[in-house]
Specification:
InterPro entries: MoCofactor_Util/Proc, XdhC_CoxI, XdhC_Rossmann_dom. This is XdhC family protein. This protein has 293 residues and is of the alpha/beta class. The protein is built from 8 helices and 15 strands. The chain folds into 3 domains: 107 residues, no CATH class; 120 residues, 3-Layer(aba) Sandwich (Rossmann fold); 43 residues, no CATH class. The chain has a 6-stranded mixed sheet, with helices on both faces. Strands 8-7-9-10-11 form a 5-stranded parallel sheet, with helices on both faces. A two-stranded antiparallel sheet has the order 12-13. The chain is elongated and about 75 Å long.
């Protein structure tokens, strides 16, 4: 599982790592069992039977869509086991045949990807500082298109390929573009490129926040601070990662009352003009038998 997680991280695919940390017999999962939950609800691995898996899927998608890390406690109906733990979410699953599970759900979201153009001291210092913050950086030639899901482009060639790099970043739709230049040279270059008003707004020059920076590392720090602001504070932040797929819809199982995340494999039944989804085939068959009876 660790190899698969590493591969997904390298491909910048968001996912949730689920690991069983406690299990009570007769639960089928054991401590240490783990799985990967993708943004479309697909689960790769094992963290319990069908009913427990449904609870994990729904909670994991919530964690992936802004909920953050979560300790999920899955209990059978009528049982009160495991003491309360701050930060835990309790799900009572009436379909469990017994036992109880605690599963830690950790969203793995790729860090912001920043492209740096140039080999100047400022460019080198920026890459070093971005690494300290855990941001991913790439280096490219001025006329090379940015990598997919690039959130920001820092143009630090100081006259070498700056125009080409700006034009390429603008055409690629990069949300945050910073040009390392004096205010006068930056304005002149934007005039030469004949940018529209909308395009000019997307280019930040001089790059960085005004912190009185003088040395190359200080300038790099000011640029990185501006990137952090773009990621964390602005109303429309730059994209930080590959987009998470649209969260699948949720429905309530009419038999057991569980909240069910609807995926291609979710047990389903059409009755007249209505459609129903179930946590497992047992609930579906019980509901179908009731319709027949």
């Amino acid at each position: 599982m660790s190899a698969r997680a590493l591969e997904l991280a390298q491909r910048r695919v968001p996912f949730v790592h689920a690991r069983v940390v406690r299990a009570q017999a007769p639960a089928s999962a054991r401590p240490g069992d783990e799985a990967i939950v993708y943004g479309d609800g697909t689960i790769d691995g094992f963290v319990g039977g069908l009913c427990a898996e449904g609870s994990v899927r729904t909670a994991a998608l919530g964690a992936l869509n802004g909920g953050g890390p979560l300790l999920l406690r899955v209990l059978p109906a009528g049982e009160a086991v495991f003491p309360d733990t701050p930060g835990a979410r309790v799900v009572v699953n009436p379909c469990l045949s017994g036992g109880a599970l605690e599963i830690f759900l950790e969203p793995v979201l790729p860090p912001p990807l920043i492209e740096v153009v140039g080999t100047t001291p400022i460019a080198e210092a920026f890459v070093a500082l971005a690494d300290v913050l855990g941001y991913a950086t790439t280096r490219s030639l001025p006329d090379a298109p940015p990598a997919e899901h690039t959130g920001a482009v820092i143009v630090a060639g100081q006259g070498r390929g700056d125009a080409e790099a700006l034009r390429t970043a603008l055409d690629a739709g990069v949300g945050h573009i910073a040009l390392v230049a004096s205010r006068r040279r930056g304005a002149a270059l934007l005039d030469e490129l004949g940018l529209t008003d909308e395009e000019r707004i997307r280019v930040h020059t001089p790059a960085g926040l005004d912190i009185g920076a003088r040395t190359a590392p200080e300038v790099a720090l000011s640029i990185l601070a501006e990137v952090v602001e773009a990621v964390r504070a602005r109303p429309a932040p730059m994209p930080e990662r590959a987009p998470v797929p649209e969260r699948p819809p949720e429905r309530v199982d009419p038999v057991c009352g569980m909240t069910v995340t609807v995926t291609a494999g979710t047990p389903h039944l059409a009755a007249g003009d209505e459609e129903f989804w179930f946590c497992g085939t047992g609930c579906r068959d019980r509901y179908a038998a009731g319709l027949v009876g």
